[in-house]
Amino acid sequence: MELVKPGININFVGRLKYAVIFSVVLTIICLISIAWRGLNYGIDFAGGTLVQIKFHKAVSADDIRKVLIQIGIDDSVIQPSGTDEVIIRTAKSSSEIKGLSAKIEESLNAAYGKDAFQVQRVEVVGPKVGKDLTQKAILAVIFSWIGMLIYIAIRFEFRHAVGGIVGVIHDVTIVVGIFSIFAIEFTLTIVAALLTIIGYSIHDTIVVFDRVRENVRKNTRKDLPTVMNESINQTLSRTILTSFTVVLVVAVLFIFGGAVIHDFAFALLVGVIFGTYSSVFIAAPVVLAWERYRPSTLKRRK
Question: Is the domain of 139 the same as that of 118?
Answer without folding.
Answer: no
